């Protein structure tokens, strides 16, 4: 993170086997190290009781064991905890949100500080882009959250890349993190329980299908190019027809049902006309739709629709074979809900990093 040493949290089993071999250690030592890291989730080699002192010392010398620091934690009454995080001495902060449900515990992770893609309804998009998080910073969010929920008798069961940033705009680090999280030789979470959410970077969706078979969520939010391009500039680069083709390919490659995220914005995309267009667009794709009532934030031109309007939209979808739950975000009280992440933290804690120009993804 802040040091130049490789961070122990970004090594896979294969990497540990290579490292042990280079050090002249027998294979079973690499297996032991992996067990301590991935299963027992130790914070430092000193906790690895069956490793000889010399190996522990060299692990300390050769690797950084640093995790992101929790700068603050805000708990909401509905079971969300928003963690404000910082890596070493770096000024920029990022956030992870723990979401506790009766029978599952989800973690929403960030992949970037800020975002380049400037969707009009999103507070992170308003920030502009600061930097990519590396694999250790992404895995670090999971490890910190796991430490917190373990003490409550829970385990993180689901991970969603729905925090700050566009995960597929930081492809290499995110793909490596997903592999570590879902590999049987790594943290061993099910591929169906690790979801990458994207605004629709088509080449990277294809690449993800080759490298990972995790769950995929698409922030669709509009069923026509005209409307979607207004809400999400990325649509000009990758219009709906191109996106649909990539989604069909991803489904064929991975067998995953695609999640469609659809924010309901009053009088923008919430009429029956759009519901019909949406059903038409999704034809041929196995998809589940999540309807997300818009989370307001200061200065936003959009409004959350009346409940009746949202229900008629939902009803139309369900009569056409798409049961579409209306997902009220947890954590609204602590600004931890979708689209509300991090603007506050950046402005309150970081005066140094300058907002960079809003770029478009390559
Ligand atoms: N960049 C990725 C992941 C982060 S955004 C993506 O766009 O998918 C996570 C989710 O929050 C996306 O579905 C996004 O569209 C949604 N979101 C953004 N702003 C929101 C708001 N104000 N209200 C509700 N959802 C919002
Ligand atoms: Fe970036 Fe996603 Fe927000 Fe769009 S919705 S600005 S892609 S974080």
Verbal overview:
Helix content is 37%, strand content 17%. By secondary structure, it is an alpha/beta fold. It folds into two domains: 55 residues, DNA polymerase, domain 1 (Orthogonal Bundle); 290 residues, Aldolase class I (TIM Barrel, Alpha-Beta Barrel), CATH 3.20.20. A hairpin with a 4-residue loop joins strand 3 and strand 4. Helix 1 packs antiparallel against helix 2. The C terminus is likely disordered. The site of S-adenosyl-L-homocysteine has 15 residues, from strand 8 and strand 10.
CATH C-level of the largest domain: Alpha Beta
- The CATH topology of the largest domain turns out to be TIM Barrel
Do you know the CATH architecture of the largest domain? Alpha-Beta Barrel
- Unreliable sequence segments: 345-362
Strand order in space, largest sheet: 1-2-3-4-7-8-9-10-11
How far from one another are the termini?
26 Å
Q: Give the distinct bound molecules.
A: S-adenosyl-L-homocysteine, iron/sulfur cluster
Strand content: 15-25%
The number of domains is 2
For the sheet with most strands, the description reads: 9 strands, mixed
Helix/strand class: alpha/beta
What is the general shape?
elongated
The succession of helices and strands, N to C, reads HHHEEEEEHEHEHEHEHHHEHEHH
Fraction of helical residues? 25-40%
Average pLDDT score = 91
Summed up, the helix count is 13
Q: Report the CATH superfamily of the largest domain.
A: Aldolase class I
What is the alpha-carbon Rg in Å? 21 Å
Number of strands: 11
